[in-house]
Design brief:
Blueprint lengths: L2 H5 L8 H32 L2 H28 L2 H22 L2 H6 L2 H33 L5 H30 L1 H21 L16 H13 L2 H17 L5 H8 L3 H23 L8 H21 L3 H28 L6 H30 L1 H21 L11
Helix pairs in contact: 2-3, 2-6, 2-7, 2-8, 3-6, 3-15, 4-6, 4-8, 6-15, 7-8, 7-12, 7-14, 9-15, 10-13, 10-14, 10-15, 10-16, 11-12, 12-14, 13-14, 13-16, 15-16
């Protein structure tokens, strides 16, 4: 396809390899979300301890943070597709180990303390794999798309992730209730195999490394990614806001408590609760494929984070399943706006030679905050109680956005292209 043909494209979906990439993202997310929902619900049923859910997040976050900067360095130096493939094969192996742990044979061989240790260990190894996968996958996308489709591609990529989250949550809840844990985990592993096959079928090549202005050792190389983010105000503030919102106002990790003890809706209800934010995000993303949020991007980011915090506060005090689902829907819709804005900024602003390392810094700020947020949620739920801890998180997020607003007014009318 020549440059003239590329420039005529109106949607990233018209590029074959990009369609394969977002299908890969969909099936990968479907598999990982199923695994997390199934294991976390079974774990809470056995332990009845909010902290056990938080420790799953910590088990993923610590190794993820430990290697993601190295992952960004390698993504800038090596073949991104091979890094993605090896990471996905490792996650598949972990998924198959979970099938064994909860199988009839595994139940006979392992005591409860041994199972708990294996769960934390295997989630930790999956965190290592994600730390290498994410920078490689994010920095691979610009080689498939022309620059003028970066924002559209970011929207469709987020849409695929949200659809995977919806499907993974619903299938996990329904599968657990109807067919049991072991068979549902097998389905999760099968979906990962499909994702790996899609990656192999992608024809676009990524270079082994980009020529840089100067050669650095690994420490200087990693530091360069941090310095770039710290010197770019809109990137720094957008990452910081998402970090605060997800870290303190995220409730996904403790939804098993709401499903089991507060709303009394069981495993099927947990599937609906986990799916609601993704449904909201999906609807928001569909709108944004037609109406870009990049016009007055910073203003839209501010509005989105405020809305996220308010919806979280209402969810915290709700005892009605329909109101709770509605507020979770809104958290997803508002979050989708910030996700698309941040994703577009990360594609548009960094030059090619440093993009992998900048995306690794993003992963530390935002992606790992999902897992650290899970730990924070479990810890605060144990200390303060489940509902007060969510109220605190929502209020803290709103207070933070007010402070950031008064320090970033010059960004409100800025257009990024």
């Amino acid at each position: 396809m020549n440059n003239t043909e590329l420039e005529s494209l109106r949607s990233a979906l018209e590029i074959s390899d990009f369609r394969k990439l977002i299908c890969l993202n969909f099936f990968l997310t479907l598999s990982v979300l199923m695994l997390e929902v199934l294991v976390s619900y079974e774990f809470y049923k056995v332990t009845k301890d909010p902290m056990s859910l938080g420790l799953i997040g910590l088990a993923i976050a610590v190794p993820y943070i430990s290697v993601t900067l190295l992952g960004g360095h390698l993504a800038d130096k090596m073949n991104k597709k091979w890094i993605m493939l090896l990471s996905m094969l490792l996650i598949l192996t972990i998924s198959l180990f979970f099938v064994f742990i909860f199988s009839t044979y595994g139940n006979a061989c392992l005591t409860l303390p041994q199972k708990v240790l294996c769960i934390y260990l295997f989630f930790g190894i999956s965190g290592l794999a994600r730390g290498f996968y994410q920078p490689a996958a994010s920095s691979f996308r610009p080689y498939i798309l022309p620059r003028h489709l970066y924002a559209n591609g970011s929207t469709w990529n987020s849409t695929a992730w949200q659809l995977g989250s919806i499907g993974g949550s619903l299938i996990a809840g329904f599968g657990y209730a109807q067919f049991g844990l072991e068979y549902s985990l097998m389905v999760s592993s099968g979906l990962m195999v499909i994702a790996i096959a899609l990656l192999i079928s992608i024809q676009t090549k990524s270079p082994r490394g980009i020529t840089q202005p100067s050669e650095h050792n690994i420490y200087e190389s990693i530091r360069e990614g941090f310095v770039f983010v710290l010197n770019n105000k809109i990137l720094l503030y957008s990452l910081a806001l998402d970090l605060v919102a997800v870290l303190f106002a995220g409730v996904v990790a403790i939804l098993p408590i709401f499903a089991q003890d507060i709303l009394n809706v069981g495993a099927t209800g947990l599937g609906y609760l986990r799916a609601a934010p993704s449904i909201g995000a999906f609807m928001g993303l569909i709108i944004m494929t037609k109406v870009s949020p990049m016009e007055s991007a910073w203003r839209n980011m501010i509005v989105a984070v405020v809305g996220f915090g308010i919806a979280t506060l209402i969810f915290a005090v709700s005892t009605n399943i329909y109101l709770s689902l509605s507020m979770l829907f809104l958290t997803g819709a508002f979050d989708s706006i910030s996700v698309v804005i941040r994703g577009s900024l990360l594609q548009l602003i960094p030059p090619d030679y440093i993009r992998g390392r900048v995306l690794a810094v993003n992963n530390i700020f935002v992606s790992s905050s999902n897992e650290l947020g899970a730990f924070e949620s479990g810890l605060m739920a144990r200390i303060m109680g489940t509902v007060p801890s969510v109220i605190f998180g929502g209020a803290f997020t709103i207070a933070t956005i007010i402070l950031v607003y008064f320090n970033s007014k010059e960004l409100l009318g800025k257009k990024i292209s």
